UniProtKB/TrEMBL annotation:
Keyword Amino-acid biosynthesis among UniProt keywords: yes
Example of a GO biological process term: L-histidine biosynthetic process
Pfam families named among the record's database cross-references: His_biosynth (PF00977)
Protein name as annotated: imidazole glycerol-phosphate synthase
Protein family per UniProt: Belongs to the HisA/HisF family.
Recorded metabolic or biological pathway in which this protein acts: Amino-acid biosynthesis; L-histidine biosynthesis; L-histidine from 5-phospho-alpha-D-ribose 1-diphosphate: step 5/9
Organism lineage string: Bacteria, Pseudomonadati, Bacteroidota, Flavobacteriia, Flavobacteriales
E.C. number(s) listed in UniProt: 4.3.2.10
Source organism superkingdom: Bacteria
Leading EC class: lyase
Functional note: IGPS catalyzes the conversion of PRFAR and glutamine to IGP, AICAR and glutamate. The HisF subunit catalyzes the cyclization activity that produces IGP and AICAR from PRFAR using the ammonia provided by the HisH subunit.
Catalytic reactions of this protein: 5-[(5-phospho-1-deoxy-D-ribulos-1-ylimino)methylamino]-1-(5-phospho-beta-D-ribosyl)imidazole-4-carboxamide + L-glutamine = D-erythro-1-(imidazol-4-yl)glycerol 3-phosphate + 5-amino-1-(5-phospho-beta-D-ribosyl)imidazole-4-carboxamide + L-glutamate + H(+)
Single annotated GO MF: lyase activity
InterPro entries from the UniProt entry: Aldolase_TIM (IPR013785), His_biosynth (IPR006062), HisF (IPR004651), IGPS_HisA/HisF (IPR050064), RibuloseP-bd_barrel (IPR011060)
Length: 259
């Protein structure tokens, strides 16, 4: 039975786990491998790890680091960061990663989406769109950690990438990143209308009820979160956490009764 997915999203910089606010002010949190082990124990639905500096630094993926994560991870793992060629992506799959997330690489070379979909299957090809509100209304896709505007409408890109063979779309809201005041449901509603693909929201979750409201509105959807699963309390003490199976069941019964 299909159910909503609750997905911790880990950001990595210089091999360390960090958390940003609106893609800025990265706070160092420790060793990402420790977080992977804890999410294993807590039986997370899946895990997304993003190397946030690979594109900014103009380098490819750190395959050694990815291999270590993949060997440790006991849940489906999605990796993103610095992927610009199908050869890089296929090498990552060979290390044991189930999904690859492409952002700038897909915008720069859209044909990579079709090439990968044909070689490994659409279900393994995830498009991440980092989206920010425009000053006078609407939304725009950004790259390079939210520093470079593309001038492109995210909903047009969603339709384009679906046609090219992508298997999932992740909408990463730059304005809500690390703010912990809830997802931009208006943004997600527009994204949902643009595609029939599996869709994941990222940016803004501060409580499990925020995830619940997302599920209530969209049903089968991915709810990705960073701060919610690495911080605890008003002072944001670092504590890796994730809802127990009972808590997820209660959340689904409350917000997603059609099971």
């Amino acid at each position: 039975m299909l159910r909503p997915r609750i997905i911790p999203c880990l950001l990595v910089r210089d091999k360390g786990l960090v958390k940003t606010t609106k893609f800025k002010d990265a706070r160092y949190l420790g060793d990402p491998m420790n977080a992977v082990r804890i999410f294993n124990e807590k039986e997370a639905d899946e895990l997304m790890i993003l190397d946030i500096d690979a594109t900014m630094q103009g380098r490819g993926p750190d395959f050694e680091m990815i291999e270590h994560w993949a060997q440790e991870c006991r849940m489906p793992l999605c990796y993103g960061g610095g992927i610009t060629t199908s050869e890089q992506a296929q090498r990552i799959f060979a290390l044991g990663v189930e999904k690859i997330a492409i952002s700038h690489g897909a915008l720069k070379n859209p044909s990579i989406v079709t090439e990968l979909a044909e070689k490994v299957g659409s279900q393994s090809v995830v498009i991440v769109l980092d989206v920010k509100k425009k000053l006078f209304g609407g939304y725009e896709v950004y790259t390079h950690n939210g520093t470079k505007g593309t001038g492109k409408n995210p909903f047009d890109l969603i339709e384009e990438f679906q046609k090219l063979g992508a298997g999932e779309i992740v909408i990463n809201n730059i304005d809500n990143d690390g703010v912990m005041k809830g997802y931009d449901l208006t943004l997600m509603e527009k994204a949902r209308k643009a595609t029939t693909l599996p869709l994941t929201a990222s940016g803004g979750a501060g409580t499990m009820d925020d995830i619940g409201e997302l599920i209530k509105k969209f049903g089968i959807i991915g709810a990705a979160a960073g701060s919610l699963f690495v911080f605890k309390g008003k002072l944001k003490a670092v504590l890796i956490n994730y809802p127990a199976l009972r808590e997820k069941d209660e959340l689904n019964k409350k917000f997603f009764p059609k099971q």
